[in-house]
């Protein structure tokens, strides 16, 4: 074993925008991406290609530094990096000199053969959030994790790793915050003082560079803004995908899908999306339809469309080895599949049997894959569900000798799913022209938000998973992924009726609201649990549709700032200890104004913590003072949700599908406060990219309690709102007050009472 510690600096030089420090073992390359984002890349392959799947930005600033006998100092307006020369160690401070994070003086960075690890000082009160799709507590302190994208079916609330890799975390101690992104795609490890007598945090990877981006902004929100500036933000999702989605493995025939869709309409349960899981294909061959069970895909989808439903179909990466199957023949002929080093195509078994795997790291392969979606888009599919892309093969152990281009599997496994989602997104966006595709992927790496939504894979119908799901969504949110779903009801097993009811209540407040279940499970549609429960679930789904104007604006905010839709309380109340307590760690803000407290199905009361400020129970209007814990009622029809004082929640009437026109009234619910508040309202056609050319409708809605007014600023953008009238509804006042409706004009509107 070749063990090497990063030793003393031997030379310091500036090369264009890089500061390069050489030691006997390695080179450290330091670049300034922005005043609050500094990259440190400690590499033993300085001549190697500098590629990233995640990062889409170039350094903004030239590097400037001071040098003394002991130190090199890099300063920006937001960060100070002090580098001790002997041995080479890195320490980040605020401009005022407060420590953010530094190497452990003893161990710093070192190597065992190709394995690289970094040891960092741990502060006594330090907490950590992030790392994306990871089980465990909101606060990652005293836990350790591995990144190795895995088909984790039957995972438990303790299983690690799951399907996705986000090597990004936020550290919090004293009054400071910082972010750390290890951009290394190899199998990687993070240990937050878990296994070392609480002496340090350590992180590293099996191979590659200690290549990290350090974020120095002093709020979690601004760190997320910087992180999503660096790795990209999502674009506006199609509005229909924010409606209720009904899935199952599988609705076996076109007729069954149509029957389920029409039952939604019969029962007056709003819904927008039906899914086809793997059984719509012929022999699980991607880009085919089963002739017998889905004989006329276009006629089938036309009927769905006539009921105002969209269809999402699944695709897996594995291409069946079968002569005469177009994707197989073309892929073999053009050499598009992963190979062994001798050039033979790798074969692994999945649903179709023996399969080859497209090399999504090649642009021509991505284009080929993307173009093949015409088999789905021509009959009318608009959503594309990417499964099994960890990549999964039976028994999980894809040999290390499998090559994707010049890279072996262990180097690129964690980004394979992301590249598949990228190929799917690019391809379907091209084919659909001006329409927004909806892409959903199971495996992901940092930056996947640019292409796709994710869901959290095969959960189980238990209350523990219900709570875990909320934490996973929140954790993905602080890792750049705002558009996230969990299988409502739990994928494996059968939920009790109570659990199904509760989980649907939480579904309202999940960015993607999709009901899905495993093969041979009991049917899960809202009407499967008796009249009374149907009533409850219908009401929840109706609430989701009422909230769509608010939710759509929350997504807009994500596209602009990277702030997620579901926000762990650690984002806005970072330094409040109570938000990390196990009792309260599942709570989150849904958009700017609503606080959601998930509760299991067997508890009818709940302990909740309301952070500073005033809050109102959404269902009753009851007022609560913040900074306190409460025991509140949590009956099955009313999981605790609170509106923040000053919350502005634009709503609409209940519609059965986002394609329904609705009554044209935008209700602006305003929750009483002594302080003024503002909400950024955003609307567009929900379906096309015209917003990129300015066809959107955006205005600030401001509540000013002192003057008893709600003001809508004049509209920015060229889109005409679909709401012709506006009605302000005042809540948390002596009584609920509905103010007279006004026309939704584009000029400033002042509503007084
Ligand atoms: O080996 O397509 O997570 O959502 O229903 C299982 C069948 C493959 C796993 C996905 C699940 C999906 C299922 N898939």
From TrEMBL:
Keyword Cell membrane in record: no
InterPro entries named in the record: DUF5110 (IPR033403), Gal_mutarotase_sf_dom (IPR011013), GH (IPR017853), Glyco_hydro_31_AS (IPR030458), Glyco_hydro_31_C (IPR048395), Glyco_hydro_31_N_dom (IPR025887), Glyco_hydro_31_TIM (IPR000322), Glyco_hydro_b (IPR013780)
Span of domain Glycoside hydrolase family 31 TIM barrel: 235-554
Top EC class of this enzyme: hydrolase
Name by which UniProt lists this protein: Alpha-glucosidase
Spans through the membrane: none
Organism: Mucilaginibacter terrae
Residue ranges constituting the Glycoside hydrolase family 31 N-terminal domain according to the UniProt record: 28-191
Hydrolase recorded as keyword: yes
GO MF annotation list: alpha-1,4-glucosidase activity
Domain Glycosyl hydrolase family 31 C-terminal intervals: 562-649
Protein family per UniProt: Belongs to the glycosyl hydrolase 31 family.
Domain DUF5110 positions: 666-731
EC number per UniProt: 3.2.1.20
PANTHER family: ALPHA-GLUCOSIDASE (PTHR22762), HETEROGLYCAN GLUCOSIDASE 1 (PTHR22762:SF120)
The entry's keywords: Glycosidase, Hydrolase
Top-rank taxon: Bacteria
